[in-house]
Design goal:
This protein has 258 residues and is α+β, with helices and mostly antiparallel strands. The chain is built from four helices and 15 strands. Strands 6-5-4-3-2-1-15-14-13-12-11-10-9 form a 13-stranded antiparallel β-sheet. Strands 7-8 form a two-stranded antiparallel sheet. The longest helix has 20 residues.
């Protein structure tokens, strides 16, 4: 009897150890990476986008993003405000659920657009929006890999494959590498509906902002021509009282913020 109890105890210990050694679920890995990328409280952040061709700056724009997480939908509302160059000042992009609108103060008109709409170089609206990947995509864990970041430094990562779970998803497929232990995104690959690789993004310059270490720079490399590179720099993270009325299409002509 004692021997039988001992055997049962040892089996229980082995099962517990196996559970402890088991990798986290793919959904949990992506959710943890979302928390690294995105503050949970309403906030604003300034973005500087620069396109480089053969290492030389070619085009640039500056944006401010106002974002707010909607607890009921687990998704963010976003309002993108153009602050430069001068020809674009005052233009707005609104994301409310799956609906995106572009507002031009010159025409006083707002038109429906998609998240694939280009901003500068390889950066689209979908690349600067605050999004919840764990909500928009179904993740599958491919395995553990050692991968290099933009500075050729190695990282132990989880390699995941993401496919759309909702109509809000910007891309038909994403491969992403998340650092083990820190949940920091290291790099991602983005694919079209036809399966063609569109671009590769690296996330770098992690620093404390609004309660977590967040990437302050994204490097986007064109999949066809690696000499076409777009850099997105993030600055001036701050908590903000983001008002619900800002995310109404009819309010766009009246939007004003200091």
């Amino acid at each position: 009897m004692i021997a039988r109890l001992a055997a049962v105890f040892m089996l229980a210990l082995a099962a517990s150890a196996a559970r402890a050694d088991a990798p986290p679920s793919a959904a949990d890995i992506v959710a943890a990476a979302d928390q690294v990328r995105n503050p949970s409280q309403p906030f604003r952040v300034s973005l500087a986008l620069v396109e480089y061709r053969n290492g030389q700056p070619h085009d640039a724009t500056n944006l401010t993003v106002h974002a707010k997480l909607v607890s009921a939908s687990h998704q963010y509302r976003n309002l993108i405000r153009y602050v430069g160059p001068p020809r674009d000042v005052g233009k707005l992009v609104l994301l409310d659920a799956s609906r995106m609108w572009f507002y031009d103060p010159a025409s006083k008109a707002s038109v429906r657009i998609s998240a694939q709409q280009r901003l500068v170089g390889q950066a689209s609206d979908g690349d600067v929006l605050t999004v919840n990947l764990a909500h928009d995509y179904t993740a599958r864990l491919i395995g553990e890999e050692k991968t290099q970041d933009a500075d050729k430094q190695p990282h132990d990562t989880w390699h995941l494959d993401l496919v759309p779970a909702t109509s809000d998803a910007t891309y038909a497929r994403i491969e992403t590498w998340i650092e083990k232990g820190t949940s920091r995104p290291i790099k991602s690959k983005f694919y079209s509906d036809s399966g063609r690789l569109l671009k590769l993004a690296y996330y770098r310059r992690y620093e404390p902002r609004l309660g977590a270490e967040r990437p302050l720079e994204t490097i986007i490399v064109d999949a066809v021509d690696p000499h076409l590179v777009t850099k997105i720099s993030y600055s001036d993270f701050r908590a903000e009282d983001v008002e619900d009325v800002w995310f109404q299409r009819d309010y766009l002509p009246r939007f004003s913020v200091e």
